[in-house]
Specification:
Elements lengths: L24 H19 L2 E5 L10 E5 L6 H9 L1 H4 L3 E6 H4 L2 H9 L3 E3 L6 H12 L3 E3 L18 H12 L6 E9 L9 E6 L3 E2 L8 H21 L11
Parallel strand pairs: 1-7, 2-5, 2-6, 3-4, 3-5
Antiparallel strand pairs: 6-7, 6-8
C-alpha cells in the first residue's frame, strides 16, 4: 500500500484539503499527571517498562508500537511521554477512533489527527511529515487496527515511507523509528491486569535511504517488523515497577 504521495503526486498536493492538529496546553498539563499517577495505577495491577533509556530526547521520532487495546493511547504517553522524556507524544489514529464522541474529543485536544487506514488521504500523511520535520515525536501503529492476539502482524509500509520522506526532505535530520511492544495479561485488558512495555533501540532511518524508495521502504519495514517481533516474543526478565 502506498501511504505517502510519490514525487509524481506532489503537484496535486496543493489541491489537497490541509489538516492540522494542536495540543491544548491546559488539558495536557492536567491529563498527564491524572493519567500517570491516578487512572493507570488504579486500573492496572502493575505497569513494567523496559528500555526507557532508548527514547530519544531530541529530534524527530516516529514511534511504532504494537496495537493491542484502546489503552495503548494512554500507556504510551505514560511510558515515553512528557513525564518520562520531557516530550509530548502526537498520534495518528484511525478515523473510527477519532470520530468516537468522548475518545475523539480527547484525541483532538491532545494533538491527535485521523487517517483512513483503508484509503489513506494525502492530507493526513502530509501532516505526519510536517510534524516530524518539526522534530516532533509521532506515534503510528504500523499493524493498522487493534489485533487481539499475541503475535506481531505484518506491518503496513506507510511508517517506513513516511520516515523516508522526512529524511529525504530534511537530509541529516536524524529521524529515528522507535519500536515499542505493548503486552497485557488479557486479550481484552481489564481491571487488575499487568502491562509490559518494551522499548527497543531506535532505528536510524538514514541507514536505509540510499536505495530506491520502494526497496528502502521494504527493507526498513522488514527491519522494524523483526525488531517488534523480537521485543514482543522474547521472554520477560524480572522487571522493575516503573514510575513515570
Amino acid at each position: 500500500m502506498n501511504l505517502v504521495p510519490s514525487s509524481d503526486e506532489n503537484s496535486a498536493n496543493k489541491n489537497v484539503e490541509k489538516i492540522s492538529s494542536r495540543i491544548n496546553p491546559c488539558l495536557i498539563r492536567l491529563a498527564y499527571p491524572l493519567g500517570c499517577y491516578f487512572v493507570l495505577p488504579l486500573f492496572f495491577r502493575q505497569i513494567d517498562i523496559i528500555g526507557r533509556e532508548n527514547v530519544p530526547l531530541t529530534g524527530p521520532v516516529l514511534v511504532a508500537p504494537t496495537h493491542r487495546s484502546r489503552w495503548d493511547a494512554l500507556i504510551l504517553p505514560y511510558a515515553i511521554g512528557r513525564l518520562a522524556s520531557g516530550r509530548d507524544l502526537r498520534f495518528m489514529v484511525t478515523a473510527d477512533e477519532y470520530n468516537r464522541p468522548i475518545q475523539g474529543w480527547f484525541i483532538r485536544r491532545m494533538g491527535g489527527f485521523p487517517v483512513n487506514v483503508h484509503r489513506p488521504e494525502r492530507s493526513s500523511l502530509i501532516h505526519s511529515i510536517e510534524l516530524l520535520s518539526q522534530d516532533e515525536m509521532l506515534a503510528i501503529f504500523p499493524e493498522g487496527d487493534i489485533v487481539r492476539d499475541t503475535k506481531v502482524h505484518p506491518l503496513k509500509r506507510g511508517v517506513a515511507r513516511i520516515a523516508l520522506d522526512v529524511e529525504a526532505a530534511n537530509p541529516g535530520c536524524g529521524i529515528k523509528i522507535l519500536p515499542v511492544s505493548l503486552k497485557y495479561d488479557s486479550l481484552y485488558p481489564g481491571w487488575g491486569d499487568r502491562v509490559t512495555v518494551k522499548i527497543g533501540e531506535p532505528i536510524n532511518v538514514s541507514s536505509y535511504s540510499s536505495a530506491s524508495l520502494r526497496k528502502s521502504s521494504e527493507k526498513l519495514t522488514h527491519v522494524l517488523e523483526t525488531a517488534l517481533t523480537d521485543l514482543h516474543e522474547e521472554p520477560s526478565q524480572v522487571l522493575p515497577v516503573a514510575t513515570a
